Structure formats: C-alpha cells, structure tokens
C-alpha cells in the first residue's frame, strides 16, 4: 500500500463526502492539559466515518459489478453507510440484518434506500444469507472493516485532519473491526510529521489489545460494553497494518467511556456515540504522557438512540 | 436606537465572544421544505447567546462602576453569562440565586467565578437580596433582558448571521424575557434585506403573544413548559421594540418542542436546549408560509441537564 493510493481514494470520494469540521474545547483542553483537535465525523453524511470507506469500496468496483449491486451483513453504521453510498452512486445495496436488530436501525437503512434481508441472529445465518445474495443476484460482498478499499476510505478522515493540523503529535481513534485505526495509521505515516496513531478500546472487548500482545488475531468472549460499534473483530487485512503502524492501544473502563461521552456532550455541545468517546477516554487515562502536546481525536460517529442514554447515574 | 449602536456593540464585544458557526441539515430542509440556516449559539462561550448581552452591558459601565462590580438575580444562563463576562473583564459578579436552584447551576456560576448569594425562592426575596448588594457593595444591577445594552449585545448573533447570509427572508428566535428577539428584530431591520423576525413561544408561557394582542405587557399564569429559559416576562425596554419590529409570534405545544429538539439532536448531531427548539418548532408549525424560502434560526443555547432529557417517550 502506498501513499498515492490514499491520495487517490481521497480524490475519488471527495465529491460524495463532507470534509468535516474540527472542533476544540478550552475546558476539555484544561482537563487534558493538552491541545485537542476533534475531527467531527459525527457530522459526516449518515452520521459516521463509515460513509468514507463504503463510498471508496463501491467506487472501486467495475461497471459490471456496480450493475449487480453490493451486499453486506451489519446492523450498525456500515449498513447505513453502504445504503447511502450505494444510493449516491446509483448502485443497489442488499443489507442482511438479524431479526433482533432495533426497528430504528432498520428504518434508517430503508430511509437510505437499502434493501433489507432479515435472518436469524447468528453469525452463521448472516453469512449464509449474504452468500445467497451474492450467488442469486451476483452482488459483490463488501466487508465493513477488513477490506483494503474500506481501510483507505476511512483513512481519509485523518488525512483531512493532518492537512488542517500538520503537526499533531498523535491521533487517537477507537478500535472496533480495525478499519478506522488501520486507515488512520496509514494516514499518520504518509501525511504526519512523526505522528503516532493510538487506539482506544474498551476492556470489555479488548481483542485488538490482546491480538497485538499475542501476535495473532484474538476473539472477544463477553461483549458487555456500551460502545456497541466496537464489538467487531480485527481481520487479516487490517491486522498487519495495525501491527506495523499503530503505536499502542489503551484500554478503558465503561465508566471512563461514559464520563468522556458526557464531557463531549456537555462541553462541546455535540452528539457522539459511546464508541467515539473511547478515544478521548484513552487519552485522559494516560494524559501524563501527552502534556502540552497537540493531539487529534477522531469522533467516529453520532448515531445514538436518544431514548437510551447512559447519563442517568 | 440606531444602526451604529448595534455596529459599535458588535465591535466592542468581538474579542470576548465567538462568531459562532452556521449549520444546515439536508434532512431538516426536506422536512421544512425550505433552506434553514442555524446560528449555533450553543457553541457560544458558556453555551448561550446571553454571553453577548452580558459582555456588552458590563463594557458600557464606567471605570468606577466596574471597580464595584455587577449584580443580577437569575438561576439560568444569564447568571453564568454575567459571571464569565465579568471574569473576562476583571469585574466582580454577585449572583443572587434562589435556595432551590439546582446544584449544577450553582456549580456552573462558581466555576465561572461568580459569587453566589442564596435567598428564599420568591421574586420579592430575590429583588431584596440584589438591592442589598447594590447598596452595600455599590454594585450595578444588570437585568437579563430588559436593558438596552443587553438587547444590543443579543442582536449581534443575528447581525453575524445576516453578514454570512444577507438574503434571509426571515429569522426565527425563541421568546422569553424578550432580549434576544428584540435585538434580533433590530439586526433584521438594520442589516437584513426585508428580513422579517418571527418569535416562537410555548403555549404554556405565551405572555409575549398575548402582550402583542392586547398592547400591554401580560403575565404568565402557569409555567408548565419544558422550555425553562422562556418562563421570564417581557419588560418596558424590549416590548416597544418587539411591537414595532417583530413580524409575529407563533405558539407551539410541548410535544412540538420535544419533536423539534429531537430533530436537531438526531439530524444535526448537536446538543441544544428545549428553549432553542421552540424556534424550529414554530417554523415547522406554519411551514406552508415559508416554502422554498431561506430562513435563519437562532439556536439560543446548549446548557441542558443530560440526566433529565425528554426523549423517553
């Protein structure tokens, strides 16, 4: 993978995404004792960075592939991102969703024009349903995070951030399936000035932390975290990049996630997902290593269920 | 009052306030069938437009007056705004608060450097406590909304909005004590191009609507509204401006306020107060009159209690 691939990906998706704003908060800077620059992907189209990778992946398909559509299985932001990206590019999107997915998620996918295929709520059933669509419709399967074109698309957020603030010492991202942090690591390497990329991960789903320790892709046992976007697992495409180019991963507790989320909502007056707050929580947890530095933080998304917030403690 | 007074007020407070961003949402525009431009005073210092008026009012005091400090009675955003504005200008602020004010509000005032004087939770006790500070300390009393310098300060938000979008057909604001809408009406008259200023007001506290009908300042009886910033009453300084320069006031139900607030949070990914949502609710209520127009909306503030949100319906 080369610098020019990331440049090309950014040029390719530019007309279909927002160059999202970067916000700062004097009060959060005082708490962190550092200068933080929040890249607000919660203001991205459909409300998350996933729009970048989905758009890039579809645009890399051949004309014939595009005619037959794309398929994925997801109940999260990638389902919405693929639906909206496909719609913008006049491609059909098939979204396999488990029968227990919340109605609000199904409505969002439908609203963006995706066709939903309901299956049993097991990974096996999801994979089988997606395979069936690939075979019967000729649609191309796109993975939410373990796909080089998706990774490059996600990396464009950090590329934009570094274009605006070239001298960031580090960039923090949450770690879920590994697409965002792998793309960010490439952007940090190619466009930063010694910029280190650091992941934040909940203790409850610390597969990436353990994978870096053991050198093989580890799985999560329990997944008892509020950061529901981070329950997914690393893959063989993004893991080598993470091994090579990510500085380290800092684990945080559920309490630390909620406290950071509250800081972002109360002090910055923006709506972000629990997963997004994990990056800030990781920085605050080890802030003594970052005193007076300029730090980038990727706010990954803002799609939350307002009827189910964690602030009633 | 002249155009040049508003220009001078804006120049005066410029270094002490943010020129806040203007956001739009494709989805909300589709719902409104119009082009909406939201002036985000929730991103203002201390989280509300009140920072503008408080700063302007303090800066208009003489050197001797500033030495002796300022006093107000408020448990809302003006208490915080006066505390922070006074701190920025190295002036002492005395804030009279009722004994039943929420701890979070007291903490915020203290955090911004205001000195709190607790009194019984009646208007009479609040006025008496403020008078006592005026007399014993020589401090100058500043009213949150019925003060020409405060009104001019609040008008600078709409002035900035019109500088960025000169051809707005209307600007909507919430109506509480009348400072914001009076200032906005002056800005619309002086800096707009036929721009009409329209108020949104909850049915539950529709004193401004009724005052415009009767021609005298009316009071609220019950005050059963979620828009707690709008329970205050018009005054003799702002009412004549509202009579002269406000196009009309549209009343909305509590359900309409919560629905608009939810739209702003979910679609724009920003945190706003219930009071702020009243302006959008008013537009949506009578949207047939504004089809395809360019409309400004003042998002007045973002200070909410995250532990007490109205989205659990």
TrEMBL record, chains A, B:
The keyword Transcription does not apply. The keyword Lyase applies. Residues 15-301 form the Tryptophan synthase beta chain-like PALP domain. Keywords: Lyase, Pyridoxal phosphate. One of its GO terms (molecular function) is ATP binding. PANTHER family: SERINE / THREONINE RACEMASE FAMILY MEMBER, SERINE RACEMASE. This is Serine dehydratase. The lineage of its organism: Bacteria, Pseudomonadati, Bacteroidota, Flavobacteriia, Flavobacteriales.
